[in-house]
Amino acid sequence: MSLKRGSEKKPRRVKGCHNCSQRRINCDRNSPCQKCIKKGIECWGLGVRYRFSNGVASRGKLAGKTIPVTDDEFAGPNTITDKKPDEASTTQTPMSLLEYSLEDLMTCNIDHLDQQARFLLEYFSQKVAPAMVAIDIKNGYRDILLPLSEHDEIMRNAMIAASASHLSHQHPDSKWLSVARKHHTAAIKGLQRDGSTGANTFSDLATMVILLIEEMVSVGEDYIILLRMVRSFVCSRGGDKKIEQSPIGRFLIQQIRKMTLYAAPLVSEISATSSLSHISTADIAILYCSQIDSTNESIIANVAGLVHQAMRIYLLRVTNNPEEVIEERVQHFIDDALLFNATSFGGHVLIWPFFIVGAECSDTHHQEFIVTQLQCLWKSTGFANILYAISFLEKIWQNLSRETWPSMLVKHVEGFIM
Questions:
Q1: Of the residues 207, 363, 403, 410, which has the maximum number of CB atoms within 10 A of its CB?
Q2: Interatomic CA distance for residues 348 and 352, integer angstroms
Q3: What is the pTM of this model?
């Protein structure tokens, strides 16, 4: 029986080093190659590379090394792996790797993966990862987690599932939904097997976070279960502070805090009141950018400001404040959102505040503005939870039972709106 094109088990042959391939010239396949030496440029070696940032391979502990760790668990851009595809795909990322700096981790060689996997990982880098951060410069999903997925099959399955789910909403009649389900199931089974050993703490935690992203992309109904799994897992591994001792841990805990915060109004009014009451604008800013500098300070401030206003509006409603007080806050939010919104640079992360404030809007013009903003966010990110948010807001606005909208969120929202 013949194999379909693209499903062969043999690794794809690399014609030359990255530079020679880009210049479309013959390469002697040495490392470094003679063409790069003669031209006086740095030879990146053989293999397909993700363009995470400029010059990352020339800095950090891995600079100038072909194999950074003695057990060959992590291969840099100048390394050719002798492993077969099946062996390479099941290798687990060692705990010792977590001691490396972010610069050490920002490289990835995926030649040993099949064509579909390479495409979907690149799709994750270009379409899914940017939607999860306000400023797509230092993106932990691309710079930290994606390279680690090269040698971690469980995490890689979750990323592929998220990408395929995203594609399935762009192309409803395509094969991508079945691909997403296949890899989602594989990621869940991988977590179940891994959980019995207690190893690979960061790999498993990263996989859960990525599966939560897929919940947003596909409007899945398991986000509450996943969030409970995440918190239980973190507690079993010593808590936030212990996990935050590594760069990967800091990034993952940052994302988990953000997801937990936004999910709170969908889970319980009591827990939401408790968590939202004790967070400041500065706290929110840190959730979006742990290192705020002059180039992104105003953007993060605008994002954090709108998110914080939405939180205050939610708290005013659940604590039964006077209608005129809440209306005044809504108008203030709308006025600010006219200046910084879904069309602004960095505004693509404002799904949650527009949804929460939209739930409070009774004015038709305000409702139309909110829907327009969410439609812009859908076009920008392609996350299906935005379309779900719009449909749910319409149910709130047509509420015939006179049930409060915070109560409706807890009882009736099935998808993760963030």
A1: 207
A2: 10
A3: 0.74
pLDDT of residue 12: 43
- Do residues 418 and 256 make contact, with C-beta atoms less than 8 angstroms apart? no
Q: 364-406, pLDDT tens digit by residue?
A: 999 999 999 999 999 999 999 999 999 999 999 998 778 999 9
User: CA dist 118 to 123, 146, 177, Å?
Assistant: 9, 11, 17
Amino acid at 24: R
**What's the CA gap between 348 and 134, in Å, rounded?**
7
Q: Amino acid identity of 70? A: T
pLDDT tens for 101-113 read: 444 444 455 566 8
Q: Is residue 49 helix, strand or coil?
A: strand
CA of 93: how far to CAs of 115, 212, 229, 248, in Å?
Answer: 22, 21, 21, 12
pLDDT, one tens digit per residue, over 212-224 is: 999 999 999 899 9
Report in angstroms the alpha-carbon separations of 379 from 90, 169, 383, 387.
Answer: 36, 12, 9, 10
Average pLDDT for residues 160-165, to the nearest whole number?
Answer: 97
Q: What is the dihedral of CA 214, 215, 218, 221, to 10 degrees?
A: 150
For 37-47, the pLDDT digits (tens) are 776 666 766 54
Between CA 88 and CA 414, with CA 209 as vertex, the angle to 5 degrees is: 130
Residue 369's SS3 state is: helix
**Following DSSP, what letter does each residue of 214-261 receive, concatenated?**
HHHHHT-S-HHHHHHHHHHHHHHTT-HHHHTTSHHHHHHHHHHHHHHH
Matching residue, tokens 């401030």:
301
pLDDT (0 to 100) of residue 285: 92
Question: Average model confidence (pLDDT) for the chain?
Answer: 81
- Distances from the Cα of 250 to the Cα of 22, 125, 184, 227, angstroms: 35, 20, 25, 17
Alpha helices in 319-363 (DSSP H): 323-339, 351-360
d(CA 48, CA 18): 7
Percent of the chain residues past pLDDT 70, beyond the cut? 74
- Token duo for residue 169: 């909403």
Phi-psi region of 45 (alpha: psi -120 to 50; beta: other; left: phi over 0): left
